[in-house]
Structures are given as C-alpha cells and as structure tokens.
Amino acid sequence: MSAELDGQAAAAEEALAGTPQRAGWFRFYFEDQHWEWSEQVERMHGYEPGTVVPTTELVLSHKHPEDRQQVAATIDEMLHTHSAFSTRHRIIDTAGAVHHVVVVGDQLTDHNDVVIGTHGYYIDITPTADQAIITAKVAEIAQHRAVIEQAKGMLMLVYGIDADAAFDLLKWRSQETNVKLRRLAEQIAEDFCAVRDKVIGSRSSFDHLLLTAHARAVEGGETASATAHD
C-alpha cells in the first residue's frame, strides 16, 4: 500500500475512532475485490476484531434476504462505474440480530489519482426513537448558535449516533474533500434547514446532502489543507 493510501487509512481510523458499534469505516479494492473492515464494522456484524476476513460473499451473506439483491446490484454498479454511492439496508449479525444501516462510499484513489476502489463508512441507524422525539429534537437543534455544533446535532438526529461520532464524520468529509470543517458544517446546516421535513421522512435525502455538501461549500469559498479544517 502506498504512503498516500496509508495516510487515507490513518485518517479514516482517526475519524471514526471511539464508536464501537454505531459507526465504522470500510475499504473495497476493485482489482481483487478485497475488503477491509474497521473493528467497529466487524463488531457490527457480530465478529470479534481480527477474527474474520471480509469477502464479497461474506458481505452479502449478512444482508437481510429482502435487501440482498439491492446490495449486490449496488456492488456491481460500483465495480462498473466507480462512482460514489449511498445505500440503506438491513444486516443480520452472527447472533441473528437485525441492524438497520446506512453505507456511504466515495472513490478511493492511489498516488496517481487513479480510482482503485471505494471507501467510506457504515452507520448503524437501528431505530431507537419515535417520530415525536425526532420532531422535538429538530426544534432543539435549531436553537444552537455554533454552526459546527448545529451540524453535529443534525448528524446525531438523522443517523442516531453520539456527538463524538458526528464530529468524526464531519472531520472525515472535511479531510476527504479538502473543505474547511466550519464551511462544510455551515453548508450541511443550511441544506438540512432547507429540506428539514423531507429529511425527517427519508434519511436518504440527508445521505445525498452529506456527500455533496463540499461542492456547494467550495462554490461559497474556502478550501482547506489536509491539516487545517477549523
């Protein structure tokens, strides 16, 4: 693995550390269809870290039978188009428990900017709150004055993750898109407020906003170096 890919791996590990079962990273290499999972994703599937080598067959075997065909089609499309993607489906862990997950992936490139795979994150969004609680929290989030805190709150609300994991996801997108964290958070907050009711009804709307916020943020100015995102 090149030094640049090592750096990408380290960034992903740092960005999603501290969230044992709610969020974790993955990588998938197109040439040999080789998968890598973080410890968090291994645990999400019911495995102790280091006890399993993920393969496409294993990945698909954990998908809920009703969702397996959809995920297989997404993997096939990914192999042919090399495009970013997002999907939400159910996985079944080794104990038989069903997890609702969202998987978001972006292009993985080598030091020559050649696309060699995809990488991104799993988020376990198994429902833990009803619609009334979600609606109440939207009003609470809207009162936050700090834009990064506001964007964190929106990620927490939509994906059902804690504050640390929400901040880690913001950092991950900031690093991967070279857009300052504050500017990216502003764009995400602005996008969320514009389509708030639609996002509450369908989290997939927010997946798209999260993956494309950097493009709108750049239009408004402020890119960032790999080491400065504040």
Radius of gyration (CA) equals: 17 Å
Task: Write the H/E string, N to C.
Answer: HEEHHHEEEHHHHHH
Corresponding CATH architecture of the largest domain: 2-Layer Sandwich
Biggest sheet: strand arrangement: 2-1-5-4-3
Q: For the residues shown, what is the average pLDDT?
A: 79
Category by helix and strand content: alpha+beta
What is the assigned CATH homologous superfamily of the largest domain? PAS domain
State the helix count: 10
Instruction: Give the CATH class of the largest domain.
Output: Alpha Beta
Structure description:
The chain has 230 residues and is an alpha+beta fold. The chain has two domains: 13-126, Beta-Lactamase (2-Layer Sandwich), CATH 3.30.450.20; 130-213, Orthogonal Bundle (Arc Repressor Mutant, subunit A), CATH 1.10.10.10. The protein is built from ten helices and five strands. The chain has a five-stranded antiparallel β-sheet with strand order 2-1-5-4-3, with helices on both faces. A hairpin with a 5-residue loop joins strand 4 (98-109) and strand 5. The model is unreliable at 1-6, 15-20 and 224-230 (pLDDT under 50). It catalyses: ATP + protein L-histidine = ADP + protein N-phospho-L-histidine. It holds the Pfam family ANTAR. Keywords: Kinase, Phosphoprotein, Transferase.
